Amino acid sequence: MKKQDISALLFTIGLFLVLSAFPAHAQNCNFSIRGKVIHLENNQSIPGAYIWIEEVKNGAITDDDGNFIIRDLCAGTYTLKIQFLGHKEIIETITLEKGSFNKTYRLEEDSMELEGVEIHGHQDAIQTTTAIQALYGEELLESRGENLGESLKRVAGVTTFSTGNSIAKPVIHGLHSNRIMILNNGIRLEGQQWGAEHAPEIDPFLADEITVIKGAETVRFGPEAMGGVILVSPSDLPTKKEHKTDLHLLGASNGRMGNISLTHTGGSEKIKGLGYRIQGSAKRGGTIQSPNYYQSNTGISELNFSGTLGYSNKKLGTELYYSYFNSELGILRDAHTGNLSDLQSIIENGRPFTETDFTYDIDNPKQKVIHHLAKFKSHYHLNSNWKANLQYGFQLNERQEYDRRRGELNTRPSLDLQLYTNTLDLFVDHTHPNAFSGTWGLNIIQQANTNVPGTGVTPLIPNYDMVNLGIYGMEKFSKGPLEIEGGIRYDFRNVKTARFINRELESADLNYQNFTAFLGAYYQLSKTITLSSNLGSAWRPPNVNELFSQGLHHGAAAVEIGDQNLESEKSLKWVNSLEYSTNKTVLELTGYVNSIGNYIYLNPTGENFVSLRGTFNVYEYLQANALFYGIDLSGSHEFTGKLSGYLKGSIIRARNTETDSFFPFIPSDRMDWGMAYRLNGTGKTHKFTLSNLLVARQQREPDFDLAPAPPAYALFNFAYLQQLQLGENKLNVGLQVQNIFNTSYKEYMNRFRYFTDDIGRNILLKINYQF
Fold it and tell me: Which intervals hold domain TonB-dependent receptor plug (predicted)?
């Protein structure tokens, strides 16, 4: 061996011995500190919290979900500092030895008063591990002027079950009506949801955010939430001297619709913590136009109001809320044929026979709906960890439906219902600096539904009284990127009915009860990928119309037959969601399976009912085991600083597993995609959006339907939004063109597709001034 080779070998051995003298772990710098920062009081995430490690002079800022991560740390001991304005600082010593560290940190409000800092802290957070999406900010601004159902079509997996252009009910994963719960400022909206032509009695202008929860949420909210939940939430009330006004002016070419909304929010200077909000809106629209003709008697008139007064301090919070909804809607005249041969003729014709011109007049058939909602809510902090809550709500829903009748009867409603609802919620929340939080509560619902005499028609449904008692508990474990949540609930419901048929009193006394439970998890796999999974059981007792309908439903122009022996629906739904998020790209994929036992549906019998008023199709309520499954996809990508794109799509399948057939009115496959170009200047922004909606033909039709499913269609839409900063005020001006090419199409989920095309081109001008 050469001398130089021996020297090299000795040097290598020596170097190895020197390095071996140091502990192996001293060179391991692949550790990380990961965590989540939330409010101690209500579990809401805190974006923008500051995290700092003094020893390495390195830190992070929490993202929109309150998550943070600091990577590439060596083994050792570190001092972690967490700060957020208006909250007490957290300082913790962390030792990294065998693995990375993760934890959830709960920040407590600081009692020190800070000038210019306003802390609300009393808006309850909806914490759930199931799929959730929300409309807020610019996207909500662009939806102004639309009804609630149309606004929610911007969310993947949400469509509408509509009756013409003015009446739309939200559909989540194929379920609607009494299977979807809508909360108006925290109170479950209670109206005559069972009717296909009964739209939610709520003004979307009162919302600062509209949230859609796609899982089975009966443990949290009760039986009517088996298909999902829609939260319509106004903004927080201010707690100091502050005034803000929001004005919306809208106009639409189709129907020559005008819409105005005004919201004013303020806080008291003399009484710290006292705030208020008043809001009102009015809408007037006339005859809707399809691409080639007007749809007779399709006008709309609305007048709405809401007001809120609240007070909060460190210990106590109270709120009084009232909303008033008043709507008059015209129903397409040709939809009420009253004669089987006329019905067959109009379906074969594919469009109404009635030729009409534009008018703002609303004649029979029509509906008038008035809805009152009053709420009192209060909470009290027992200590820094426990909070007691009380919420009471009162609602009065008055619904009148007018049919085409002769003489004096034409001025009298054919259906006249008054529904009184009282709800009481008592619950306690607990949050702790450690990993656990939860809610335990009691929910009571009392309803009384009355048929107002004088219609001259046998009531479609009987008078009834209903009481529902629910007891529930939910617990959540949070540690860094992991959240595990579980809950259980027991409900008991009693329904008593009474009505006269042929001068004989018919009554019933029915009881229903059931346990429900759920288990869910949320995990942040990395800084960019999160996974959530939720498995929940749900149930829904049959509604009174499904049990006792016995006659002509004037709004649907059909005879409906109920079945008193129907059993409760019971389901098991599994929802999984995977989200990928970076500075430029956001992708979310949601898959679900929902097995429903005793699924209740309205089925055409093929028979006809003949009366003096005409001939009507007969439908009956049936039950079958059902399987719903599908996927939702949504995403966006920023190609450059100016150009971005988005994509939303959904696929759903629903089968009758007993007969291996399909159910009626299940949404067909659809995809909505578009490109946006944004120009930012000094004090102003211009945004141009071109989008395309693709809807496939529904290939999975039931065995019997009045007409085949309509063809597939594609709609192109354009939107322009200009945002101007005028000192401390802001002006938003929008121009939208819907159905640019005036395409003739029929939506399968529109009950009036048998009689008419959907709405044609519509040009909207929207002005919003914030001052």
Answer: 126-229
CA dist 413 and 399 (Å) reads 9
The rounded distance, in Å, linking the Cα atoms of 106 and 40 is 5
Q: Which two tokens stand for residue 293?
A: 């003709």
Rounded Cα–Cα distance for residues 630 and 570 (Å): 19
The H or E element spanning position 9 is helix 3-20
Which domains, from first to last, does the chain contain? 3-107 (2.60.40.10), 132-770 (2.40.170.20)
pLDDT tens digits along 680-696: 888 889 999 999 999 99
Which residues pair with residue 489 across a beta bridge? 472, 516
Over residues 233-251, the pLDDT tens digits come to 998 898 888 899 999 999 9
Q: In degrees rounded to 5, what are phi and psi of residue 203?
A: -100, 110
The model's pTM: 0.84
Question: What count of Cα atoms within 13 Å lies in the side-chain half-sphere of residue 327?
Answer: 23
Contact 545, 579 (CB under 8 A): no
Strand ranges inside 639-712, DSSP E = 643-656, 661-662, 670-681, 684-695
Comparing C-alpha atoms, which of 90, 47, 91, 85 is closest to residue 68?
47
Task: Say if CB 502 and CB 181 are below 8 A apart.
Answer: no
pLDDT at 122: 43
